[in-house]
Amino acid sequence: MQNCGRFCAKQHSTDLFKKLKEETNNLNELFAKLNEDIKETKWKIIDDHTATIEYEKCFCPIHALGIVDSAIQCNCSTGWIKENLELYLEKLVEVTLEHSVLQGYPSCKFVAQY
Fold first, then answer.
1. Which residues sit opposite 51 in a β-bridge?
2. CA-based nearest residue to 78, from 45, 50, 110
3. Residues 6+ apart with CB under 8 A from 96
């Protein structure tokens, strides 16, 4: 499923992250801009190598269309985050799902380690 998320990112958001890479100088600036531009998300730095990303709702368009209603789909989002952060940071990033709306939680939360 991560490959699905990477493909989705390349179709819909890597251009945004490339633009933000030119406009920002570090993750603090990037996350401030993402929090401003992508409503209903919270991008937060925990320490020098860890961040959390929280969505207030499921953003998956396949889920919104009613095609998929399984928490396995949430692994797609880990790939989306991974693709975009790796593009920005120019290094490998590990992303894990902490919990999701499709698992019955009120939000989706991911942990990124870089």
1. 45, 112
2. 110
3. 78, 110, 111, 113
Residue whose C-alpha is closest to residue 34's, from 50, 53, 15: 53
Answer whether 0.85 is exceeded by the pTM.
Answer: yes
CATH for the 2-113 domain, from 3.30.1380.20, 3.40.190.10, 3.40.50.450, 3.40.50.1820:
3.30.1380.20
Residues written for the chain:
114
Per run of 10 residues, the mean pLDDT along the chain (length 114 residues) is: 92 94 96 94 97 95 87 93 98 98 96 98
Alpha-carbon distance 101 to 18, whole Å? 28
Assign 3-class secondary structure to the chain: CHHHHHHHHHHHCHHHHHHHHHHCCCHHHHHHHHHHHCCCEEEEEEECCEEEEEECCCCCHHHHCCCCCCHHHHHHHHHHHHHHHHHHHCCCCEEEEEECHHHCCCCEEEEEEC
